[in-house]
Amino acid sequence: PSESGKRNEMKVRGLRFWCAFYLESPKLNGIMNIMYIHGLDSQPNTNKLEILRGKGHKTFALHLDYRKDLQAFTKLHECAVKNKVDFIIGNSLGGYFGYWLGQALNV
Questions:
Q1: What is the pLDDT of residue 46?
Q2: Strands 33-37, 58-60: parallel, antiparallel or unpaired by DSSP?
Q3: pLDDT at 30
């Protein structure tokens, strides 16, 4: 990885491989609207969002209480459509929702 890739790997240790792939992948280096979906009992991770914003991307992240909000998927879908999301990133349960959201939106 490049020097910037190494710095970001250290900054976000939990996403070491994702950051290295993202920063080195030419097809993902265009400016995009990116939705980040957090996991169960979590919240949007500002470190991950800062890395994406630092590359010039627009990021969208909702804070959802999956245990109580039965409309979580609908809210994510509406946000993604409204903001014309190009790319979806999710952790844990957010990855599950992200997969199905991507299927629904062909992203």
A1: 86
A2: parallel
A3: 74
Phi and psi at residue 70, to the nearest 5°: -75, -10
Residue 9 phi/psi, 5-degree rounding, is -65, -40
| Cβ-Cβ contacts under 8 Å for 86 (sequence gap 6 or more) | 32, 33, 34, 107
CA angle, 57 then 8 then 63, to 5°:
55
Q: Which one, of 38, 82, 83, lies nearest residue 63 by Cα?
A: 38
Edge-to-edge order in the sheet of strand 58-60 = 58-60, 33-37, 87-90
Structure tokens at 60: 């969208």
Place of tokens 């919240």: 43
- Output the pTM of the full model: 0.74
